TrEMBL record:
Species per Swiss-Prot/TrEMBL record: Yoonia ponticola
Keywords: Kinase, Membrane, Phosphoprotein, Transferase, Transmembrane, Transmembrane helix, Two-component regulatory system
Catalytic activity field: ATP + protein L-histidine = ADP + protein N-phospho-L-histidine
Protein name: histidine kinase
GO molecular function, one term: phosphorelay sensor kinase activity
Domain of life: Bacteria
Spans traversing the lipid bilayer: 6-30, 158-181
InterPro entries named in the record: HATPase_C_sf, HATPase_dom, His_kinase_dom, HisK_dim/P_dom, HisK_dim/P_sf, Sensor_HK_Regulatory, Sig_transdc_His_kin-like_C
Domain Histidine kinase, first and last residues per copy: 248-458
E.C. designation(s): 2.7.13.3
Taxonomic classification: Bacteria, Pseudomonadati, Pseudomonadota, Alphaproteobacteria, Rhodobacterales
Enzyme class, first EC level, given as a word: transferase
Pfam families xref list: HATPase_c, HisKA
Length: 469
């Protein structure tokens, strides 16, 4: 039980209540001692009134009066005259004098603690003010041990009462905590276990019902987390199914393209000048399509090949890409600007860089065509001592907010209606395979710029370079 939240709360409640009672006990025992001594002063004053009625009192009566008052002698001061009213032998010397007329709380607590620790038989002198104007001062001598015994009995009574109160209070709080806090938490944990058993089932997502504000906030957070996880699992299943379908399509498409590749070999032998000019581009496009299908199949088997790095003249690759984009733009007023230096050579995998730049240029062209306004797509390249930089910029409308927030997430970062957002995801993965990064340079109403960073030296790529050497 003590390992549970409610059990520990029970123990802590008892401890804290007892600790509070200790702080209450100290001043209360001091007050008890003060009341005890003031009562002895009153009794002594009442005993001394016997002299007012009879000047001569039998010794036996004096002894009885002092015994009832629990004092050894009584001294009254009237009109500045100190008078021993009642007296009897004092068995022990007077060890301390306490003036009750003007005593601070601290002094009362100090004297009470001194009385509690006293061990020997002692006689104390107590001074006070008579009640009902019975004089200027009253002074008594009384034994201290009866006072100590009364204080100890009072302390034991307070201790037992405090213990009973603390146990009752702790028990009430124990059941209150179990009902108001532990049971809702247990229900929350049980719901989490039920959800964990079937996280794909949306019916298992928690519905916040707690009336405790903190627990309600926790349930809301859990509901959001479970909804996101269920969505992610569903998307994972869809991606797995899509991956299987793509693998099958890529397999069949590869066979079809392989057959088409055989026919292009014959086309290359044609004497038609237009066919001679277009045939190499057709062969290159079909070869790339076959390579893409094979790469897709390898990716489906978690066998995405590492980039084969080589010295690549970037300008020739860009010329080929821009020519294809100009044809794809048709009658749209899209201008393409090539700012890649003719002598710029990068270290990269030609096929993978072609796929990356093709995705970026196509996205830029489609962004401008969607506006039905003239626009410009610019590709530029430059380098420094540590890296090559390639930028693809357009003068389109910029990326929408949803696309910016989910830029490199599959099926979420598409900027066009119906777009999957896979292009940027694939491009980013390919650039990371080169040890570089693909970043969004800027996007606003004046256009969008993507930046490719390819490092000139990367430890992860050194083994490939060594292998090539």
């Amino acid at each position: 039980m003590f390992n549970s939240l409610s059990g520990r709360f029970l123990v802590l409640t008892i401890v804290f209540v007892m600790l509070a009672e200790v702080f209450i006990f100290v001043p209360s025992i001091a007050r008890f001692r003060e009341d005890y001594l003031l009562e002895r002063l009153e009794r002594a004053q009442l005993a001394s009134l016997a002299l007012e009625t009879d000047a001569f009192i039998e010794p036996e009566l004096v002894t009885e009066l002092l015994k009832n008052a629990e004092v050894y002698n009584v001294v009254l001061r009237r009109n500045e005259v100190r008078q021993l009213v009642l007296s009897s032998p004092i068995p022990f010397p007077v060890m301390a004098t306490y003036d009750m007329r003007d005593t601070s709380s601290w002094e009362l607590i100090r004297d009470a603690m001194a009385t509690l620790v006293a061990k020997d038989q002692q006689v104390i002198r107590v001074i006070g003010t008579p009640v009902q104007g019975g004089g200027l001062l009253i002074e008594i001598t009384t034994p201290q041990m009866p006072l100590r015994a009364a204080m100890l009995e009072y302390g034991r009574n307070v201790l037992w009462l405090s213990l009973v109160i603390s146990v009752i209070t702790a028990a009430l709080l124990f059941f209150a905590v179990r009902f108001l806090l532990v049971r809702p938490i247990k229900r929350l944990v049980d719901q989490m276990d039920r959800y964990a058993a079937a996280p794909e089932d949306a019916r298992k997502i928690i519905e916040p019902t707690s009336k405790v504000r903190e627990l309600y906030v926790a349930e809301l957070a859990l509901q959001k987390m479970e909804s996101q996880l269920t969505g992610a699992l569903r998307q994972k299943d869809r991606l797995a199914q899509l991956g299987g379908a793509v693998a099958k399509v890529s397999h069949d498409l590869r066979n079809i393209l392989t057959s088409a590749q055989l026919f292009t070999d014959r086309i290359e032998g044609s004497e038609d000048p237009l066919v001679k000019r277009m045939a190499p581009k057709l062969v290159g496009s079909i070869s790339r399509a076959v390579n893409l299908c094979e790469t897709t199949l390898a990716f489906g088997r978690v066998e995405e090949p590492q980039p084969t790095l080589a010295r690549l003249p970037l300008s020739g690759l860009v010329d080929e890409l821009l020519e294809g984009e100009r044809l794809a733009s048709g009658e749209a007023e899209v201008s393409f600007v090539d700012e890649v230096p003719a002598d710029m050579i990068v270290r990269a995998d030609g096929e993978q860089i072609f796929r990356v730049l093709s995705n970026l240029l196509r996205n830029a062209r489609q962004a401008i065509m969607a506006t039905r306004q003239p626009g410009t797509v610019t590709i530029r390249g430059y380098e420094d001592d540590t890296a090559w930089w390639i930028e693809v910029a357009d003068t389109g409308p910029g990326l929408p907010k949803r696309a910016r927030e989910n830029l490199f997430k599959p099926f979420e970062g598409g900027a066009r209606k119906g777009g999957s957002g896979l292009g940027l995801v694939i491009a980013g993965d390919l650039i990371r395979g080169h040890g570089g990064r693909l970043e969004l340079g800027k996007t606003d109403e004046t256009g969008t710029t993507f930046v490719i960073h390819l490092p000139k030296a990367d430890l992860a790529l050194q083994p490939i370079e060594a292998a090539k050497a």
